[in-house]
Every structure is written in structure tokens, then in C-alpha cells.
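User: Please work through this fold.
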Amino acid sequence: AKFVTRRGFCLWPRPSSQDGRHCRFLVVQHWYKQWEAYVQGGDKDSGTFPGCINNADLFEDQVNWHLRKGLVEGEDYVLLPAAAWHYLVDWYGLEHGQPPIERKVVELPSVQKVEVYPVELLLARHSDMDTTHTAQFSRTDSVDLVLRTAREQFLVSPQEETRLWIKNAEGSFERLCNTRVTVLDAALKTGQVVIMETRNKDGTWPSAQPQAVNTALEEDENFQGQPGICGLTNLGNTCFMN
């Protein structure tokens, strides 16, 4: 792929193992093509001047700035390395109010890719599961980052102990036992509800019956297995019931 500068052409690399932690920026295809024509033509007074970068066509709304579904690289957008993006913004500007569309280059099993569509989770508190807050995460982010994001979102004090649950499509709940795993390994998907539970001041958890709490806590402390999701066999049928 080529990146055009004001002085000509230079090659910019696809993601590689050396820059796997770097990011890429999305630019709408038609703006980029018009800019290429403007630079290649060399006529500063031509009608090909692209103006500021305007990625409006890539968004499905201009409130939450969610990307449209099904966008295709090379048809709807191009991916630029950070240095190229910052040059273009310095030269031409970005449409007022629009956020830059920055995406991670991530290492997935057997493939490295730009994560154009991160995982969007719906974060909620156990005390108000009907009110959710959307947060985006890379598939390579840890579940611990999800927990920390939820704690920040819901203004939990550092002294309070919390844990996470996921709500399955059929309405059941499973606890995320180990926060060291990645979002990918925990099989978290866009649109999934992740619930943060805060321990009561008396040491109990709102989701557990009093007689089940000690068993659950003991298992938490002794957990040595592979990171993943725990079932609810020790919590009875009253999880998240008022």
C-alpha cells in the first residue's frame, strides 16, 4: 500500500511483529482518493483540494460515534499509521467535533490484524442492571481492564471489593473468575452485558445466599485453575434476585 506525501510517494508498512502494539487510523476512502489526486496533480488551485478530513460517512451516528457495520478496507476507508495521520491532520485539519478513529494492531491466534471493530461491552451494576454504559475493549485487553473500567465508571472507592459477572443470552449469569485472561479468551462479545458486583459491608455478596457465601469465597481464594468463566452451582438459584 502507498502513502502519498506532499513530495511524492513512499511506502508505509503493513502491521508487522515489530509494530504489533501500534495503532492505525481510519480515513474515509473518497477523501483519501481526492487528496491523492490533489497531491499528484501539483496544482494548488485545482478543484481537487480535499479540505479537512471528514469521516462522517464512516459513522452510523454522530452522538456515540459508532462505526457503520460492514465497512470494507479499500472501499470505505484506508488505514494509516499514526505518523501519516498526524501529518494529514496538521496539514488539512479534522472536521470539527469528530473524534479520530484510532484502532489497535493486535496479535490474534495465527493472525495479526487491525481491530477495526473492538468489542463493545455493556457495563452495569448489580443493583441496577437495567442501566448500562457502553465501553470498547480490544480483544487483547485483559478482563482486569474491564473491571477497572467498570470501577471508574461507577465511582467505586479503592477500598471496596468487586467482581464481574456476564449475563448470557438466556438470562443466566456466570462469574468471570480470573481477571488475568484476555477479552478474547473469556469469549466476551459485542453487546454482552457485564455486571459489576460490590461486596456488602458485612462481607457478603448481594448475589449469594448467606449460607453459600463462605463456600464461594473459599473457592475464590483457592482458585488455581485456568483462567475463564465459573458456573453458578455454588450460588443456588437466587443470583441477582432482589
Remarks:
- Residues 2-114 form a domain with the DUSP-like fold (CATH 3.30.2230.10).
- The CA atoms of residues 111 and 199 lie 40 Å apart.
- The helical segments are 29-41, 82-92, 143-153, 210-222.
- Residues 29-41 form the longest helix (13 residues).
